[in-house]
Each structure stands twice: as structure tokens, then as C-alpha cells.
TrEMBL record:
Keywords: Signal. This is VCBS repeat-containing protein. Gene3D superfamilies: Integrin alpha, N-terminal (2.130.10.130). InterPro entries: FG-GAP, Integrin_alpha_N. Pfam families: FG-GAP_3. PANTHER family: PROPROTEIN CONVERTASE P.
């Protein structure tokens, strides 16, 4: 806060050029690259080396299809069909299910209530053979894989909203595996997404499920279906991108997901199946509309894991308003405070996404971003990657704005002043300050926020 009468915006800009004792640089520049052969209504993407050539490939699920996009190591992709069916393929997971050293693909499709795995032949070229695990997961949406019972065989989990069921399928360890279904829960409101891991440090694999609710099923020793239900939060919604990982590097699993009210939720595991919710949102104007594509990863190698999102387009809102219809990185300061930086604005249909990821696609040592769009008349625009090109070019000041460029302010008034730079995002070293001409003297004020190319002082 400050007292001021009759300041002039031109004087502010002049002072600003003189007194800013810090460096302004662009941290990232991202270049959009279309991936030829994308398909409509992409629901899920996974970034992983499928064929063992050390290059990160892309696997997608969507309308009736599962595709593998082979990377040549420079970010050029060749599409191969893994499976073509009659129903939308929602769930997707990649892991070696049969222990032969080759990465197989799991899928979940809703129209035929099917959970299936697609065996990787390990040959060149790779061929894929579909095996059904279950056809009783009504409206199957999500799949996950982990050794649930400690027998060294990878088991499978599914979430199916039409029957409200979370189930796990025990792998016999034979070739090919036989599967025995064990129900974790039925009639649930947490039935859209499933993951698993030891959440309470007892050595047993617990199950995490989200949908309208966020629920943890704590595994016991008595039987394959010995689970105790713990509802962590109700009314979550929009949890398509739920991830279980150690977000804060304290040794236990936290949960990250998009959620209702246009927010991203981080549920910090504080022990004994207790969680503290940290919400990321931008308020009423700069909001995140239905953040269904959410991916936690450390993008800048500092202060822990960041979060990348692709938020959906919101009706009549403009493509430049808030974080609607865009791709953004939320940079973490290490204390659950995040600064959003938008890395893509553009065609409204592009970021209408349910899945996003990051990996080094071109082997240049930095993380690129892959975005799966959902709806476009040209299916080739459904899948694209954003090439990360670090750029330390000096950012310059374009102009300065204030609520009232020339006006009278009373005692206690807050005067927000925005400094607009030539490019975004910008990084800073030092402490940005702004000196104002306030008539009888000068007043120095500090930066209070930075977003994209705008630094705000008051």
C-alpha cells in the first residue's frame, strides 16, 4: 500500500528503466510440431521407449484405436496400429506384463466393458496380439499395473463407472498369464481412475480411486479382497489425469489430479493415510477451465516437481483469458506455491485435451511437452509436441499500465502497476523494484507477482 497523488504513467516507465537492478531472461521457448497420423478423440497418451532403441515413443488411445508412434530420436514419428476395434479406448498403461523383457500395452474400452492387454512380440517390426483380461468391467475407463500380492508378477487394476467397480486381476505368472478377478469395491463414486502404491508404509499395496470422490482402499493381509475404505474427499470431479507419485520428495506417495471448481489438487501425504489438500487455481478471472490434462514433472530442475496442464476451451471465453484453452506450466517454488507460465495459445480445438505429458523427445537434454487434442476436423492436428528450446535472450520492457494512469489516490489505496515485457516467460535474478514520482518525492515499491510477460507491483 502507498499514498500517492497525481502520478504520471510516463514518469513511471522512465523510472522503471533506470532502477531495475536485475536480469530478465526468457526461460523457455516452445515450438509446436504436428505429429502426422493423429486420431480423433484421443483419451490418453503415454511417453515411453517401446522398442528399446532409447528414444521416447508415444502410445495413444482414443476412438476405437490404440496407436504407437515410433520416434526416430529427433522428434519425427512413424505411426503403427496396435489395435483397432469398435469402441472408444479410454484407459492405457504400458508395462512388461508377461516377464519377457518387452513392453506390453494395457487398454480399457467402455462399449464392450473390456480390459485387455496387447502382447509385444519383441520382433522387428513389432507385432501386437490382444488378450482379454476381463469383459465384465462395465464402461471400463482406467487401467493400472503393479505387483499387488508380492509374487513378482505384474497384476492389473481397472476402474469402471457403469458398475462403480474397482477390481484387480491376479496374474498367474504363466505364459500367457491367466487372470483371477478380485473386487476392491463396488457401487462406488470413485470409479473413473485407478492407481496403486504403498501409501502408509506398511509394505502392502493400497489402491487409489477417483471419480466424483477420492477414495483410498487400504490393503490388509487377510485375503486378496481385504481392503478398508477411506474416503479422502467427496465432490472432486474432473480427475481424468490422476497420478500417484512422491511430489514433495519426502519419501511417500502423494496424489496429483485435476479436480472440480476449475482447480488442480495436490493431496500431500502426511502419514497414516492423512492428506492435506493444496489447491492450484487462478481465481475468478485467470482460471483453469476443467483441467483434465495434468502432468507433474520437474521442468526447470529447481524447487521440485512442477505441473503442466492443457485446459479445455470454455464456450464464449476468449482464447487469451486466464488459463482457458491453453497449455501452461505451473512452476513450483518448493513450498506448494506455483507461478503459471503459458507456453501455448492458439487454435481453440488444439488444447481441448484429456492427456498431456513431458519427456526429452529430441535427445537434446531438456523436456519437451506432448499434447493430445480431442476434437478437430483434421485428425492430423489431434496430436502435437512442443519442442523446448531454452533461450536466454534479454527481455525488454514494452509498456507500463496502471488502473488510473493519471489520478488521485487516497490514503491506504492499493495501486497495481503492470510492467509488460517483450516476451514470456521471464525469469528474474535479484529483487525487482519500481520507483514512482509522487509529486513531493519518490516512492519505491516491490514486485508482488509475475505471470507470463507481466510483472505486477503495488
Amino acid at each position: 500500500m502507498m499514498n500517492q497523488t497525481n502520478y504520471n504513467a510516463k514518469k513511471l516507465a522512465f523510472c522503471l528503466f533506470i532502477i531495475m537492478p536485475f536480469m530478465l531472461t526468457a526461460q523457455f521457448k516452445f515450438t509446436k510440431n504436428e505429429i502426422t497420423g493423429g486420431h480423433s478423440n484421443i483419451q490418453k497418451i503415454i511417453l515411453l521407449d517401446i522398442d528399446g532403441d532409447t528414444n521416447i515413443d508415444i502410445v495413444t488411445s482414443g476412438n476405437n484405436k490404440v496407436y504407437w508412434f515410433k520416434n526416430d530420436g529427433s522428434g519425427n514419428f512413424t505411426r503403427s496400429e496396435v489395435y483397432s476395434g469398435s469402441y472408444t479406448m479410454y484407459g492405457l498403461y504400458v508395462i512388461d506384463l508377461d516377464g519377457d523383457g518387452h513392453k506390453d500395452i494395457l487398454s480399457a474400452s467402455d462399449g464392450n466393458d473390456e480390459v485387455a492387454w496387447h502382447k509385444n512380440s519383441g520382433t522387428n517390426p513389432i507385432t501386437w496380439t490382444k488378450h482379454v483380461i476381463s469383459s465384465l468391467a462395465e464402461g471400463a475407463r482406467s487401467v493400472y499395473a503393479i505387483d499387488m500380492d508380492g509374487d513378482t508378477h505384474i497384476d492389473v487394476l481397472s476402474a469402471s463407472p457403469d458398475d462403480g467397480k474397482i477390481a484387480w486381476y491376479e496374474n498367474s505368472g504363466t505364459s500367457p498369464p491367466a487372470w483371477t478377478e478380485h473386487q476392491v469395491g463396488t457401487g462406488l463414486s470413485a470409479d473413473m481412475n485407478v492407481a496403486a502404491g504403498d501409501l502408509d508404509g506398511d509394505g502392502l499395496v493400497d489402491v487409489i480411486a477417483t471419480g466424483n470422490d477420492f477414495t483410498i482402499f487400504n490393503k490388509g493381509n487377510a485375503s486378496p479382497t481385504d481392503f478398508t475404505t477411506n474416503i479422502i474427499q467427496t465432490g472432486v470431479n474432473h480427475t481424468e489425469s490422476m497420478t500417484a507419485l512422491d511430489f514433495d520428495s519426502d519419501g511417500d506417495l502423494d496424489i496429483v489430479s485435476g479436480r472440480g471448481s476449475n482447480r488442480i489438487g495436490i493431496w500431500e501425504n502426511t502419514g497414516s493415510l492423512n492428506f492435506t489438500l493444496h489447491d492450484i487455481h487462478d481465481g475468478d478471472y485467470n482460471f483453469i477451465y476443467e483441467p483434465k490434462a495434468v502432468y507433474p514433472i520437474d521442468m526447470d530442475n529447481q524447487n521440485g516437481k512442477d505441473i503442466i496442464i492443457a485446459s479445455r476451451n470454455y464456450g464464449g471465453w476468449s482464447a487469451t483469458q486466464g488459463n482457458s484453452d491453453g497449455v501452461s506450466i505451473y512452476f513450483n517454488d518448493g513450498s506448494y506455491n506455483f507461478t503459471p507460465v503459458t507456453i501455448l495459445r492458439g487454435v481453440r480445438t488444439d488444447p481441448n485435451s484429456r492427456s498431456i505429458g513431458a519427456a526429452d523427445l529430441d535427445n537434446d537434454g531438456d523436456l519437451d511437452v506432448v499434447v493430445a487434442g480431442r476434437w478437430d476436423s483434421d485428425n492430423s492436428k489431434q496430436l502435437f509436441w512442443l519442442e523446448n528450446e531454452p533461450d536466454n535472450t534479454l527481455a525488454t520492457i514494452d509498456f507500463v499500465t496502471a488502473e488510473k494512469p493519471d489520478g488521485t489516490y487516497g490514503v491506504g489505496d492499493i495501486i497495481p502497476i503492470e510492467v509488460h515485457f517483450s516476451r514470456h516467460p521471464i525469469d528474474i535474478t535479484g529483487t525487482p523494484q519500481l520507483t514512482l514520482d509522487v509529486g513531493a518525492g519518490t516512492k519505491t515499491i516491490n514486485k508482488v507477482s509475475i505471470r507470463d510477460s507481466i510483472m505486477t507491483f503495488h
